[in-house]
TrEMBL record, chain A:
Name of the protein: Amino acid ABC transporter permease
Segments crossing the lipid bilayer: 20-39, 60-77, 83-100, 121-142, 148-170, 182-205
NCBIfam families named in the record: HEQRo_perm_3TM
Keyword rRNA-binding: no
Top-level taxonomic group: Bacteria
UniProt entry tagged with the keyword Oxidoreductase: no
CDD domains for the chain: TM_PBP2 (cd06261)
Mode of membrane association: Multi-pass membrane protein
Family stated for the protein in its record: Belongs to the binding-protein-dependent transport system permease family. HisMQ subfamily.
Residue span, ABC transmembrane type-1 domain: 15-204
TrEMBL record, chain B:
SUPFAM superfamilies in alphabetical order: MetI-like
Family: Belongs to the binding-protein-dependent transport system permease family.
Keywords tagged on the record: Cell membrane, Membrane, Transmembrane, Transmembrane helix, Transport
Transmembrane segments: 20-41, 82-102, 114-134, 241-262
Origin: domain of life: Bacteria
Name this polypeptide is given: Amino acid ABC transporter permease
Compartments reported by the entry: Cell membrane
Membrane topology: Multi-pass membrane protein
A Pfam family hit: BPD_transp_1
Region (Disordered): 271-305
């Protein structure tokens, strides 16, 4: 136990970096994912095709491979803003198709009857989207989006293998120093991760109850 | 769905949308071509030496060497081996977890729930390191154990949701004809839940296959480690991009074919999958899917609507 208490500053620094990775790449993935989702439901066929190919390729590539590309091959192309920024880029790109799918399924999940009703009472395209479709779609999108962010929180650990000092990196460093107390150290790190994921899970449950669409 | 939102386009609007679509294709194609050319352009590094572009033949001649393909094949086999063993164990664990989670006795249900939440909230990578260091199992079994526990927890949750979504009459009918509660769960509820959740389970197996690449970090020499690290170290960083692209292509081929299978099965079993919602449109009961649930005496179209 003393190995954990002695190294608490190390863990806290790692925790800060994990949270930083989560928040920055979460926001980035949200923006990129919205754009991809928009392309995917756009009336223009070529945009739809492009977004579909992008989604399929990124979703079927292991995160490790993407982060490897960011950490080793981008610097080789003389683009090296530091490993933290590179990891953020990788995590953003990897998470964006999952965000896009969540948003798209939310929009598709709104019943056709809603759109038909909106049209038949005389609302135009913009009006029915703004007043009828999107308010329902966004509510349905929130719980799956939080699940995507929970997965992102766990995925930040992979960045620890690519020179970013976050919780997993902290765990590796401390276990190298104190090989006698591996169990306590790893359980402490697990608690930090659970702090993030369980909190997000509780929020997801709350939001789900609060914004549920009655039908 | 989107077609409901606006009026059917007339000839003018159709021509307009065709023009925009064409412009879109041109823009996207120009972007892709620009990217390819930019990657292919030779460029000077800091010390003045000129590196050849990425599509230069000198970066790809290594693939004439048969030994390179043999190593990549060995790496891919190691990946598939880990994924296969982990998938079987994850399925078994998932069944086990789902029974514990849906148990009637709180003494079994509550601890299982806590354990499941713990496993689901932890990064797989941390579990791998944990198992490697604490149980000193070697990298293969560390990877297999972490992957099967994590994915088993998720499959278990999916199966439990499937059992919960069944109409209550299924269980009551099982009990009424004299089956014990365990036999009811095993022979009546579980086969139906498994079949309903099959698309989700296969999607999870794609995730498992992708996650085998994490064992790169604990030192198992699978496709990623062999392809982008060992081979690059051996043949020089000149080839790093070429190896990266080939490894990416192999991963995409494996994952996309599994995803395609998942989608196919989802389409086949989807129609009569949602029993509580009661969708009337289930023309064929998809005999092929029945093979997955084994000889349980459950025929496809008996699903209570």
């Amino acid at each position: 136990m003393d190995a954990v208490i002695d190294n608490l500053p190390v863990f806290l620094e790692g925790f800060r970096n994990t949270l930083g990775l989560l928040v920055i790449s979460g926001v980035g993935a949200l923006i990129l994912g919205m754009i991809v989702a928009g392309l995917r439901i756009s009336p223009i066929a070529s945009f739809r095709g492009f977004a579909t190919v992008y989604t399929e390729i990124i979703r079927n590539t292991p995160l490790t491979l993407i982060l490897f590309f960011c950490a080793f091959l981008l610097p080789y192309l003389q683009f090296s803003p530091g490993y933290f920024a590179l990891a953020v880029i990788g995590l953003t790109v990897y998470t964006s198709p999952f965000v896009a799918e969540a948003v798209r399924s939310g929009i598709n999940g709104v019943h056709v009857g809603q759109a038909e009703a909106a049209r038949s009472i005389g609302l135009g395209f913009g009006q029915s989207l703004a007043f009828v479709i999107l308010p329902q779609a966004l509510r349905m999108v929130v719980p799956p989006l939080i699940n995507v962010f929970i997965a992102l929180a766990k995925n930040t650990s992979v960045a620890g293998a690519f020179f970013v000092f976050e919780l997993f990196g902290a765990a590796r460093k401390v276990t190298n120093d104190r090989g006698d107390q591996v169990l306590a150290i790893l359980l402490a790190v697990a608690v930090f991760y659970l702090l993030i994921t369980v909190t997000l899970g509780v929020i997801a449950g709350r939001v789900e109850k609060r914004v549920a669409v009655l039908r | 769905m989107t077609s409901v939102l606006y009026d059917a386009p007339g000839p003018k609007a159709r021509r307009m949308s065709r023009i925009i679509s064409l412009i879109g294709i041109v823009v996207i194609a120009a972007g892709v071509v620009a990217l390819v050319l930019a990657l292919g352009a030779p460029k000077a590094s800091a010390n003045g030496a000129v590196q050849p572009g990425l599509w230069d033949l000198s970066r790809w001649d290594v693939f004439n060497d048969l030994e390179v393909w043999r190593s990549l094949g060995r790496g891919a086999l190691a990946t598939l081996e880990m994924a296969g063993v982990a998938a079987v164990l994850a399925l078994l664990l998932g069944v086990f977890f789902s029974f514990g989670r849906a148990s009637d006795t709180a003494w079994i249900r509550v601890p299982t729930t806590i354990v499941l939440e713990f496993f689901r909230g932890m990064p797989v990578l941390l579990m791998m390191l944990f198992i490697l260091l604490v149980f000193s199992t070697g990298s293969f079994w560390a990877g297999v154990a972490a992957l099967s526990v994590y994915n088993g927890a998720i499959i278990g949750e999916a199966l439990r949701a499937g059992i919960k979504a069944l109409p209550r009459g299924q269980r009551e009918a099982g009990l009424a004809i004299g089956l014990t509660p365990i036999a009811t769960r095993l022979r009546i509820e579980f086969p139906q839940a498994f079949r309903q959740m099959l698309p989700i389970i296969i999607a999870q197996l794609v995730v498992l296959l992708k996650d085998t690449s994490l064992s790169f970090v604990v030192g198992y020499s699978e496709l990623l480690r062999v392809g982008v690290r060992d081979l690059t170290n051996f043949f020089g960083s000149r080839y790093s991009f070429s190896f990266f692209f080939v490894v990416l292509a192999i991963y995409l081929a494996m994952n996309l074919s599994l995803s395609w299978l998942a989608r196919r099965i989802a389409r086949r079993s989807g129609a009569q999958g949602s029993a509580p919602a009661g969708k009337p449109d289930s023309p064929d009961p998809a005999p092929a899917v029945n093979r997955f649930v084994g000889p349980s005496g459950y025929s496809g179209d008996a699903n209570g609507v």
